[in-house]
Design goal:
Elements (H helix, E strand, L loop, with lengths): L1 E5 L16 H15 L5 E5 L8 H11 L6 E4 L6 H7 L13 E5 L2 E5 L14 H14 L3 E4 L10 H4 L5 H14 L2 E5 L7 E5 L2 E5 L6 E2 L11 E2 L5 E6 L4 E6 L18
Parallel strand pairs: 1-2, 2-3, 5-6, 6-7, 7-9
Antiparallel strand pairs: 1-12, 4-5, 8-9, 10-11, 12-13
Helix pairs in contact: 1-2, 2-3, 4-6
């Protein structure tokens, strides 16, 4: 299976810049790159912060841009999103019985579970008992390998200011215990941190990547006030089979020229 993962589009009101760049222009470039290079992908998942301020106009523009994507797309909610406006514009997004934007999808690779980690009224994350009960039901029904998609990571990343708006520590511990009981979690994809990170958490492989508009500087010493950069955005091309999950980060706006080394003259 071939999956596209991107995150943190942060769309603004139409024509409005954000930190000196235009999120809509970058997302359009991303869609063009996917269409030209990876239109054979089975699914594209965007892991939250779809709109910077949760404006309905931003969601309208998001829908307009994604209408040109040749790959089916699944949206995940993030802390910058507004739950009611998001679902108003994208009514196809399923909600659980408590109203959280959560759903599960059977694929050839296993069960994909799209989770709502938003803690209302704050940029931090949560995964309360109500959501964990829903997740436990999905895991019980899955019966196969599971891939999780959410906005907040359920662990500390070492970027301290971002970890302060990460997932609630007690919720993260309870979530870990639930996933360990199931035991067939193959990979966790998340957003929020605007940095490429890969590793494992409690034996579960994870990955995230740069956002579409702006990035968080890699600074493991700063305690407060994270800094932003304009490193190029990226999306991930994920190849999944029975034994492997391979994640390629594609810096699609990197100006570096592609060249054939066989056409280069020999060095003296």
């Amino acid at each position: 299976m071939k999956l596209i993962h991107l995150t943190d589009t942060h769309l603004t009101l139409p024509g409005q810049p954000l930190y000196g760049t235009y999120p809509a222009e970058r997302l359009r470039a991303c869609v063009e790159s996917i269409n030209n290079e990876h239109a054979d992908a089975d699914l594209c998942v965007i892991t939250g912060d779809l709109a910077h301020c949760g404006d309905i106009e931003a969601y309208e523009e998001l829908a307009s841009i994604l209408a040109g994507l040749k790959v089916p797309v699944q949206l995940v909610i993030g802390n910058h999103d507004h739950r009611e406006r998001l679902v108003e514009r994208f009514p196809q997004l399923a909600r659980d019985e408590a109203g959280f934007v959560q759903s599960a999808l059977k694929t050839e690779a296993g069960t994909f579970i799209f989770m709502d980690s938003v803690k209302d009224g704050t940029h931090a994350g949560a995964y309360c008992e109500t959501r964990r009960t829903w997740l436990a039901q999905q895991l019980e029904k899955a019966g196969d390998d599971v891939f999780l998609f959410m906005h907040h990571a359920p662990f500390k990343t070492g970027i301290k200011p971002m970890d302060k708006i990460g997932m609630d520590a007690q919720d993260a511990l309870a979530l870990k215990a639930l996933l360990q009981r199931y035991g067939r979690i193959k990979h966790l994809f998340f957003g929020h941190y605007h940095r490429p990170m890969h590793g494992s958490w409690s034996g579960i492989g994870f990955s995230t990547l740069r956002g579409m508009n702006h990035q968080v500087a890699l600074d493991l010493k700063r305690e407060d006030n994270y800094l932003f950069t304009h490193e190029p955005p990226a999306y991930a091309v994920v190849l999944i089979d029975d034994d492997n999950v391979v994640v390629h980060n594609h810096d699609f706006m990197d100006p570096s020229q592609v060249f054939d080394p066989n056409m280069e003259p020999e060095w003296d």
